[in-house]
Amino acid sequence: MSHLLAYRSACESADILLGTLSLIPATEEPPPPTTQRSRCAELWDAQRDTILLGLNDTQRKRLTENASKLGRSWLSTIPLFQPLRLSDVNIASALHDRTLVGSSVPICRFCGASALLDHDELCRGRNPWSQYRHDAINRPIFKHLKQINGATVEVEPPTLSGQRRNDLRVRGTSSLAFTDYDLKMLFLRDRDGRSTVGPTPAKYKLADFCWDRCVGWLD
Fold first, then answer.
1. What's the pTM?
2. pLDDT higher than threshold 80 for residue 9
């Protein structure tokens, strides 16, 4: 069905182009052509909703995140700065993740739990991996805050209550006033994440509902 609609849009565009070149005499001004995107939008929306209805909550979140601007930017970006470049292993892992297929090993060798989709992000036996992702975000924030004139930034300063430490403490020109910031890594299957399974509001399409629940705040 979609290729028939695409063919119709292509014919309309071709007729207008040929008329402009005076290869086909035009008896009257032709109407503006309908683009393939506009003509197929309803069909594509129906196909997308059908796919989402067949997925569980974790798969819906992963699919929605992969379709976001931030989730797909690495596919078309080639960093010139060497430390920011992705290795072949990173790219292969990311492409595998986009298939929504879990690990080929059913049981995680680090913690012994079932290796479901997104288990790598929540595995308790691989805390250093989570810490690495945390530090990889925390360090650039610290570096850029230090460049602000008059700002003093501390990493993991001691707090007045208990042993818990925040990630950053920022002071202004006054040495007494400061603000603490604590960075928390949230994953799509994290217990703090919002579920996409449930009744969809009447004014929402299923895809828009999943978007707002998962990554709408990113854009």
1. 0.63
2. no
